[in-house]
Structure formats: structure tokens, C-alpha cells
Amino acid sequence: MQYRNLGTTGLSVSEIGMGCEGFSEDNCQNTKRLLDAAEKLGINYFDLYTSDPEVRASVGRALKGRRDKFILQSHICSIWKNGQYMRSRKIEEVKAGMEEMLSLLQTDYIDVGMIHYVDSIDDWNTIQNGPILEYAKELKASGVIHHIGLSSHNPQVALAAVKSGFIEVLMFSINPCYDLQPATEDVEALWDEKNYQRHLINMDPERQELYETCQRLGVGITVMKAFGGGDLLDASLSLAGKALTTNHCIHYALTRPGVATVLAGAHSIEQLQESAAYENATEEEKDYAPVFASFPNISWEGHCMYCSHCAPCPKQIDVAAVTKFFHLAKAQGMVPETVREHYNLLPHHAGECIRCGACEKRCPFHVSIMENMAQAAALFGK
Predict the structure, then answer these.
(1) Own/partner pairs for 250-253, CB < 8 Å, 24+ apart?
(2) Do residues 161 and 61 both lie within one domain?
(3) pTM for this model (two decimals)
(4) Most exposed: 5, 181, 194, 224, by fewest CB within 10 Å?
């Protein structure tokens, strides 16, 4: 298992994380099975969005004696009321839900406390200017949560939250279909088939800006819905019109700026093992570019996907890395010091490009790579 820094939190998290979708199955007996399997696979990060007290209690039992082996992302504002899950912004309900969570989990701290499901600007403003964010800050100051996070499906909201400086970790829905859709407060629009019936070209610019801003500001992204609820893995259900593999979806998410871990939903040990097998997959098995280039109604024409099909460069330039740092700096309108440092550490730089054009002939998305190299060399000075 490979591990990545979760932004600037200081946490080292497994590239493959785990969702909690399967925990409730078999009367919650699946919780311990999945956590046992995760430990064996080297998966140390998991999300617990559900407020179901039976699931939370099963997690508490499964973590007993090994709490320090897992990094737990659990959700503030996800409460259990009248026998069902609810999202609340009523501070007394939120506080009671948090106390119940800690009790059922048999722990005195949460590694990442997620402000749950914020998909509208009005909701974010209510949170930012009201008692919810203050409560999260109090929890952090007292050590009950170690880092403040936020979950969202809306790039406008997520960007506003990230830019506020209060959010250290962002849980966001990332896959190659959702990334084509513009911001909306209606989460169901992301998987509405009619939104994929027109010709779609390139990533939504607000999503690109969000990922680049997270990278620049050191906000770690934990990915939800990498498989589109499983639909992207089934040709008959895939919004792209073709099936992707588990490796394609994971690799796509992990190659976005700012991403630290993909929270793989699993209903069985076998499904979790399939996601973890990404770590031993060949580059060919991970390679999403050929299938992306063949999607009906969807085009990434001229958009660098960081897929590295441009390699090998005769001057040994890592074109994908140079392009990613170039995009990060270009989006900022300047060269942040951290970006410059990472660029400088590359063994070969854009200025070494001899404009042979070999990379452009291999690019499945027809990116103007030579022009990008020229602009990067001018921007970074080498």
C-alpha cells in the first residue's frame, strides 16, 4: 500500500481508503470483517458518514484495541432522529449527535471531523457565520477532533469553504463523468442521464480550479463516488456510455491535484481487495486514456489528463508533472513558492524541450504540448 500526505494535516493516509456503505450488512457483522481486511491490506483511512447508532456501535467494537491503527473521518451534523438519518444545522442536535458518536465509537477523538453535506452557498454561509463552524473550532481546540473537514458535491461551495482557511480536508465526489458537469445545488443532477445526452467537452473549469486550489493551499481531498455508485463499472449503467474498471476510476481520481485517498465503497472483503489490488496493477491496467478517448458524447479534446501517454520524452522531461505544475501556477496567476520548489526538484524542465513533437503524436487528447512547454519554461524561468 502506498501512502500520501493528507494536505498539510501531517497525516499519512493510504491511497485506497474505505467507505462505510457495507458496514450495516449482515446485522453490522460486516463492519469487523471489512476493518479486519482493511488492516491486512494496509488501508488506514475510512469514512463514517452514517449516523445509524447500530453501525457506529459496531465500528466502536471493531476498533477496540486498535484505534491507533486507523485514521477516522466522521461527520459532524449527521444525526439520528426518529429512527432515521438526518442532516441537521440545529446546534443542540449537532452537539448531542457528536456526543453520541464518541460514546458509540468508544473513542475520545475523531481524526477528521467532517461538516456534513454542504451543497449550497447559503448553507455554507449559515455554517461559516453561525454556531456550526464555531463548534467545530471548539472541538478542534479541545482535541476532540484533530482536523476540520467538509463534504460537498458542489465545486462552488467547496471552493468557497477551502478559500475560507477553516477547512483542512475536503471530501468531494470525483470521477470522469461528474467532472464534466457544472456546479449545481441539486446533487442528483450529477447522475441524471439527460445531462449526458448532449456533447460534453472537457472538465468543468470550477472543478479544475477547486482541485488546483486544494493542492496550492494544502487542503487534502478524500474522494467519494469514484465509481459513481458502481454505475461507471457497468456498461449498461455507465453515464459515459462505456464501462470503466476499478483501476481506471481510482487512477483517474488519484491523478487529480490535491487528492490523497480514494474512499472505495465495499460490500464485501472481495470488493475491498479488488480496490486495493490497484496498488499492484500494471500501468497498462491503470491506463484510462484509451477508453476516455473513445467515450461517445464526451470529449477531453485539448485538455491534459496527466495520463502520461506523451512519454517517453527524448529529453526525459516528465511532461505530465510539468503540465500539472504549470496549470497550478497559471490558475493562481503567479508562481507560488511551493509550486516553484516542486518544479525545481524535477530532474528535467520545460526549457529542455526540443520541440520534436513526439509527445503530441502520442497524446490521445491532442493537447498542444509543445506550446505548454514553451509557456512553462517562460513562467518558471527554465
Answers:
(1) 250/15, 250/16, 250/226, 250/275, 250/278, 250/286, 251/278, 251/286, 251/287, 251/288, 252/174, 252/175, 252/176, 252/226, 252/288, 253/174, 253/175, 253/223, 253/226
(2) yes
(3) 0.84
(4) 194
Give residue 198's pLDDT. 66
In a domain, 291, yes or no: no
Q: What is the mean pLDDT of the chain?
A: 91
345 to 339, 349, 370: CA distances (angstroms):
10, 9, 21
Report the alpha-carbon distance of residue 181 to residue 179 in Å, rounded.
6
Amino acid at 190: L
d(CA 61, CA 115): 24
**Greater confidence, 195 or 74?**
74
Q: Please, which residues have CB within 8 angstroms of residue 284's CB and are 6 or more apart in sequence?
A: none
CA angle at 381 for the pair 377 and 382, rounded to the nearest 5°: 60
**C-beta atoms surrounding 185 within 10 Å:** 14
Better-scored residue on pLDDT, 246 or 81: 246
* Cβ–Cβ < 8 Å for 303, 367: yes
User: Taking every pair of C-alpha atoms in the chain, what is the biggest distance, in angstroms?
Assistant: 67
Instruction: Give the CA distances from residue 251 to residues 6, 175, 226, 284, 286, in Å, rounded to whole numbers and listed in that order.
Output: 17, 10, 10, 11, 6
Tens-place pLDDT, residues 107-122 = 999 999 999 999 999 9
In 3D space, the residue among 74, 44, 81, 35 whose CA is nearest the CA of residue 56 turns out to be 74
Are 368 and 337 contacting, i.e. CB atoms less than 8 angstroms apart?
no
Q: At 277, is the secondary structure helix, strand, or coil? A: helix
- The total of other beta-carbon atoms located within 10 Å of residue 191's CB is 19
Q: Is 158 helix (H, G, I), strand (E, B) or coil?
A: helix
- Whole-angstrom distance, CA of residue 220 vs CA of residue 187: 22
Number of domains in the chain: 2
Record the cell numbers describing residue 276, joined without a space. 486495493
Beta bridge partners of 220: 169
Element spanning 275, H or E:
helix 269-276
Q: What is the pLDDT of residue 34?
A: 96
Q: Which domain holds residue 358?
A: 319-380
- Cell 502520461 maps to which residue? 308
Q: Output the domain CATH number for residue 191.
A: 3.20.20.100
Tell me, yes or no, whether 143 and 279 share the same domain. Answer: yes
Q: What does the block give as the cell for 328?
A: 497550478
